[in-house]
Each structure stands twice: as structure tokens, then as C-alpha cells.
Amino acid sequence: MSVTLENITRAVDGIPTIRDVSLTLERGTLSVLLGPTLSGKTSIMRLLAGLDKPTSGRVLVDGKDVTDFDVRRRSVAMVYQQFINYPSLTVYENIASPLRVQRQPRAEIDKRVREAARLLKLEPYLERTPVQLSGGQQQRTAIARALVKGADLVLLDEPLANLDYKLREELRAELPRIFEASGAIFVYATTEPSEALLLGGRTVCMWEGQVLQVGETPKVYRHPETLRVAQVFSDPPLNIVAIEKTNGSVQYAGGVLAPASGLYAGLADGAYRVGFRAHQLELATGIAGRHAFSAAVTVTEITGSESFVHLNRDASNWVAVLQGVHEFEPGYVLDAVLDPNNVFVFDPAGRLVAAPGAI
Amino acid sequence: MARIDLVDLAHSYGGNAADPQSYALKPISMTWRQGGAYALLGPSGCGKTTLLNLISGIVTPSRGKILFDGVDITPLSTRKRNIAQVFQFPVIYDTMTVGQNLAFPLKNRGVPKAEIDTRVAEIAKLLDLTPDLKRKATRLTADAKQKISLGRGLVRADVAAVLFDEPLTVIDPELKWQLRSKLKALHRDLDLTMIYVTHDQTEALTFADTVVVMHDGRVVQSGTPAELFDKPAHTFVGYFIGSPGMNILPAEVRGREARIDGHAIALDRSYDALPAGARIEVGVRPEFVDVTAPAPGLLSASIERIDDLGRVRFARLRIGDAKFAARVPPGFSIPGNVAGLIFDASRVHVYADSRLIEGAS
Q1: CB of A352 less than 8 A from some CB of B
Q2: Cross-chain CB nearest to A330 (options B174, B188, B310)
Q3: Does any CB of chain B come closer than 8 Å to the CB of residue A193?
Q4: Which strands sit side by side in the sheet containing A291-302, from one edge to the other?
Q5: What local confidence, expressed as pLDDT, does residue A209 receive?
Q6: CA nearest B185 in A: which residue?
Q7: B226 contacts in A (CB within 8 Å)?
Q8: CATH code of the region B4-240
Q9: The complex's ipTM?
Q10: Does residue A204 contact residue A23 with C-beta atoms inside 8 Å?
């Protein structure tokens, strides 16, 4: 089966929250809605679920118009950021509840509850009530209930946002396998690029109620069609510098002139913006063919495995990431170096015109 | 500003007669230096919020003392302790302007107006709030409101300490980067003692000079981010710090050799007198293992999948029944689904009953 949003627009009090969104979701796929707060992720989910109606456009299931069907007539399960369970029921009964509503036979209920509990590692807790569980266990219970329902469409709205960091890391790694085993259409909303990358599947990049780009997750990450997509899909934030290409040279804003080598060679003369992620900026000098910028360290953040060096260069802030521990004094001036083969180049309208081929 | 001493401090919500094993915070003694940036890091239920609440005076300890600059402040109320606090969700007055909100903690303490104006201007500048000073705080986004909360926490120069309780939870990733580096710069400029509670290792490691890792009501290690990463004192620290965390494998260790899954691995140091009967494990971070084609003499592992996280990739492996992660370079590929592992001997640590054993050189 498939679900299609066709030219959907939704306005609340005359203010558009979703602008002309078209999107098709196929059975057995995972789509990650990636975008900052208020970019329209939750609104899209509510439209898919039938909780809200579009101002214009249609919602189709297998080509059939279901725009006017409310949530009860759609086969949908939803998991929210704030986990919701029945406090008086055991974990077993919480997971079983949608099957009891469907009046499934007892043996069938038992089979499906135990299967979901096994997938989500809840087997030791089936007889407990939610208050006896940690936050992670409670959210796993909510996810198990959504899975067991057997809905065609499972919507997860930032389901890990309220969980501890380490638990998130573990659940993120498990979820793709759980999704694969289920065969439903999964839609997963997140603000975090790293979460989208870990989950894989397809990424739907959102900004101000619009879908900016849809594609295989690593492809969207490595080939962002616009500057905005590159920004939404970068953590640490994308570094940006303006350039002007003329006669075989590039003039970087703030006064660095360099030969138009690498990806710059193929550009027509004119103005561009160059975007590069933290790991594309190097702090090593003396490498031939690189473009060097003098920058002052503002702060160094060390995680042990990596060091994030925040730099100030010509009134803009850049971040570089280095492997291992590197501590720089604030104010220390160093050379930040770009490989002209390893940058994203955008035209004045923000469209990608050059990107590293194979990363 | 103050130096903070925790002296045999412990707390039980069940009262001090309860079983010490059930204490939410088991007895700790430690000193936090004046002007330091500390993070209390651990999963929910580890006791970090209890410890913060003891320092702020919201909770009175079952035993032990807290000293600010050598003075016992344990019996004092929160207000008398002279601390500032920033919470998970913004606490501001919607009816006041941004400037009035920032000035409030000073006004409340009867600070002269000229001084208030100087300090508010300084803090607003540091937090990029100067253009908003005359705006009403209502109708601002959650992000902006939390920035004002941070400003209110930092505006008083005379506080003993500023306590942050998961202050960046409601903030979007991009702004998190900005606020985190801002907080770090503020700490440098303002010379305040700061204590930051979080479950997020990135926030803790990037903010603090000293990270205090808590687990099950105890401090399991306190150190710089590099120390916690390079030499975890406890397998929990190895697991909790780093993403993915340290690989911990059951092993037999003798002298300069560890046997893992029946295979010998060389160690940099010698381990001759391991505690008898203890559970022996070795720990190695995913960053310090090379994954290569299987070869005689190499520990072999089956490859389950490769996680592509954008700037880094991790191979997810299995050694016997144990899961194992290793960082692999871009374009990593080896034929088949079996790999050979090469360990950086100087980065392999030995643990007995979860605690680090220092080998002999």
C-alpha cells in the first residue's frame, strides 16, 4: 500500500503551516522528516493521521481519496515525544490494548504482544505497571503498542527526544531493524541530522512548512540540492563563505584570493556561496593546493574522541572538528584550510552547483 | 564565587535510617574549585539531580556537610546560600521587557541602578540580546526565552555558584551549538563557579573542565574530558562516554597478554596480580581498533553492518556472542562478512569487577 499527500496546504488562522507539500510513502519504507522546530513535521504527521484536514490538496491511500476520513477510519498508530501509557495497566496489557479493541483472539494477542516485547526488550517487565519503569522502558512500551496494532502507517514524532542520551543511542540503532521486521510505512520526525543518518531510509528535509528535498538519507546528506538543505542537514552548523569567481581565480569574502582549482574550475564567472561542514575544514598547514584562511579561536569543545574548534573569521563563525584532543587558547590565530575539491558550491539563489563527487 | 567542599555528603529519600545501599546519593567527599566549570553527568536515576538539589538547598542531606569557602552552609535556605539557578524550562516574567527580566535578580538584591545597567548591558551583549532589551518577553520563542533565563542566571557577579539543570533540553540543535560555546565563553569571561547537570555527554564534555560521572548514586570518575575518554576508571564510564561507547569484552589476562574469545591480544602493560575471583574484562574504544581482512594471528569478528554517520562510519561487529564497534574510514569495504581486528595495545585497558587495573610497565 502507499499513502500520498498531493499538493497539500494547511493554514491555521490564515497563516500557512504547510505549503504545497506532495509526498508519497510506500509500504515497508522508513521516511525521516528532518527539520528544525516549527518546520511542519508534526503538522505533516497530523495530516497523514487524519487528525487535521488540509486547507487544500488531497490525501490518497492506494490512490483512493481519504482526505475527509478522520483518524478512526485510517489504519494509523502514533508515538509522541511525551510517552503515553495507561498507568493502571501492566506493560503486557498496555501493549495488548489495541488488539483487545480489535477483539483479536486471546492466543493471537498473546503471540503478538510477546513478539513485540521481544523486539523491544521488554520481556522482563511485562507484569510491571508504567510507574515501575524508566523513561526508556515506558517509551519502548508505547512503541511496542504502536507496532502490535498492525497499522499500515506508524508515525513517530520525536519519540526519543525525552530519553537519556545513551538510551537514545541504543534505541536508534535498534529501530531500523524493528521497522524492517514490521513492513508498515514508518514516518519518523526529528530535529537532529545524526538521528536521520543513523536511521537511514529516506529523508524528507523540511523548512517553514515546505518539503525542500526527498531522497535516500546518505544521498540528501552528501548532495543537498540547496544551501538551506545543507544547513538543516549539518550538525555542527554549516560553515558558509561568499566567493566571486573571475578569470581563473576565486576571491573569498574577507580577502583571500586563490586559484580557481578543484570544484571551482568548472564554475562560470560570478558570485557564489561556499558551504562546508566542520569536518571539511582542516587546521593543518602546508598542504599543497589548499586555500588557507587566518582565523581566531573563540572556544574549543573537547569530547575526547573529537575536538570542536569554534573560529571567528571575517565576522563569521566557523566550526572545525578534529580527531582526538586539541586544546587552543581563545584568541589564538591559526590557519583554517579548505580543500577546493571538498566543498559545496551554491549559486546566488542557493541552488547546489558543485559538490564533492565521492566522499 | 566560592570553593565548594562536599564532606561525606549522602542522601536517602527514605530517611537516614534506611539501608545505605538504597541511598539516592551514596557518601561522597570532593572539592570543587572556585571559578571551575563542572558537569554532573549520568543517566536518569544516577543521583545527579539529588546532588544538585543538595547544593542549592532544595533538599537537606541525610548526612554530611556542604561548605562554601570553608563555611558550613548545610543548614541555610536556598536564598541564603547566594546561588543562581537555570532550569530545564525558561523561568521569566512575560509582562516585563527582556532588560527588566535580566535586571530582576539584581534589583531584588538592592544593587544600585548604575551598576544594574552596566551589568545588564554586559550580559545582554554576551548573549546577543542587546537589540531585544526593550522588547516584551512575551511572544518570544522558547529558545529566546531560555537565553533570557541563562542571562538571569549569570547576571549576578557575587553568587557562590551558578547551577544549571539540563538548560539546553528545549533548544534546537543549531542553537545548542551557539549557546554551548557561548556558555563556555561566558564562563571564561565571568569567572563564576558553574555546575551543569546533564545526561548528554556532548553537553557535559564540551562545557566542563571537570566532568563528574555518576552511576547508581556514586561518583564513578571525575576528570577532564580527555581523561574520561582515554582512561575510563570504570567500565560504566567507558560505556557512557563516547558514542558508541567503549567495547567491553570478557577476557583472561596474564602478564602482557589478554585472551579474548580464545585469541591472544598483546597488552602494553603487565598484569600479574589481578584480584582472585574477580570478573576480568578488557576495554577498547571503537576509535582504536583497525578493521582489516581476516588473517592468521588476528582476532576475527563477523560484520553485521556499517553505520554511516556522515563524517564518521562505524562497523558493527560481533566477536563470539559479544557486540563490538569499530570506526572505519570512508569507503571501507572488505570482501565477505568476516574481518580481522588489530588493536592499538596502548589503548587496551584491563578491568577487574568493572574497575580499571593499572598494569606495571
Answers
A1: no
A2: B188
A3: yes
A4: A281-282, A333-338, A291-302, A306-313, A316-323
A5: 97
A6: A299
A7: 302, 304, 325
A8: 3.40.50.300
A9: 0.84
A10: yes
